[in-house]
Amino acid sequence: MGNLRLEVTGIILAGGKSSRMGRNKALLDFGGRSIIEHTVDLFKSIFPEVILVTNTPEEYANLGIKTVTDIFPGKGSLGGIYTGLVHSSHDYSFIASCDMPFLRRELIEFLINLNKGYDVVVPRLRDGHEPLHAVYSKKCINKIKEMINKGDLRIIGFYPEVRVKEVTEDELAPYISEPSPFVNINTPEEYDDAVKGRLL
Question: Does position 48 have pLDDT exceeding 80, yes or no?
Answer without folding.
Answer: yes
